[in-house]
Design goal:
The protein is α/β, with parallel strands linked by helices. 24% of the residues lie in helices and 29% in strands.
Length: 474
Amino acid sequence: MKRIAVIAPEGTLDLAALEDAADRGGLRFSAAGIPSGALVALMLPNCLAFVPAYLALRRLSATVALIPPKYRARELEAIRRGVAPLCFVTTKTATQAPGLAARRVALVDFPCAGEQLAVVFPPENERTSVIPPGTVLLKFTSGSTGQPKGIAFDVANLETEATNIVRGLGIGPDDMILAPVPLCHSYGFDLGVLTLLQAGCTLALEKGFVPRRMLQDLASGRVTVFLGVPAMYRACLALPASVDASPRVRYLLSCTAPLPASVITAFHARYGAAICQHYGSSETGAVTTHVPAQVLERPDSVGRPMGDVAVSVVDAAGHPVAPGVEGEVVVSSGAVAHGGYVLGAPADRTSFQPGGYHTGDVGRFADGFLYVHGRVDDLINVGGFKVSPREVIDVLESYPAVSEAAVVGVRGPSGEEVVYAAVTLSRAATEADILAHCRSRLAEYEIPRRVDIRSSLPHGPTGKVRLRAQDVRL
């Protein structure tokens, strides 16, 4: 019986067909002008061709840069000037994307692709960043300025990451991973692509997210691991009460942004399934995953460290703190990017230190479980009192009418920093209603100066809310 490797809306590939497509695809990329050892940007959506295209480039010993198709002119120009990829491999229709300038385009009849792939050669420029020797993969994540940060990984990093995930989640050949999240992002690539290649399991891809269809897939008994994000679980809770499904999945994962405990408990109460928060970053790979049997006892935890990952919590001087005490989360693992940042602000590079990667996340340990409470640099200084945006968000999202919330610190009329919140609603409510809810649960200095009710909140390519103080006016 043939083992299915990839399932996508366009079709399926068994393991033998996947290897064959990668072999033939490598030859066609070579014929299109990609030499051995080049740095190539892979900019594909979730599709049947993604995994074989990645493998085809690796057959050519290429350093592969994963580029989100949602990137636009500013991000693409920063990447082109910073790391100077020889070419971009993308869909034929994406060649018209703003910022994807071309001096030459070669169309490739790639095996298993629903349409021709395009190899776009941009105008030549001198690379402004140094790519460390041994780099085989570049991931990109948004920096504090909104410009992409490039992160360099070698073969050992990827092998360690794959091993940590496969062993940590107990993935085997009989598992099926359902991934509606982008494979070009660290979450989808590591837990989807690397896991498929390491364990020989099945990777099922979705190009979009439809709540009812997702619940049907999860109740079918075929899917064993689901790669979700908070917005997906919120959308399932917003479905009419007549929608009934019981997910039969070993791991319902949630990553890329914190998931409030209230959503976890509400989802379990309605659907009978526990959502496991998975904590990691583009720089570190997988760090922790919750234990399904422990989720309801600790719904606000992100779980325990995975595999060979060592996690510590340190004070401002870098010294470990006692269990229960908050500090900065530091991660040490063979999966942490060997080359650090190759593109980004100089200040970002200080996160990589001999003792591990300083995540910038505020966390604490209790009984071996990690709890993450926000970002070190997100703390809002209200008259000398420090306010965690995460804590305010949790209170806002515990109000029944609030679907999603974001909190930032902004300057008030007198120049003082104040708490600003923006929310979306699932049913009618007023700012006064929401503030009354906050007053019963927050200290006076933590209460938002304003709650802005919006039809939607800005999200980045991975679904994470990206509300910036400079975009807010009181």
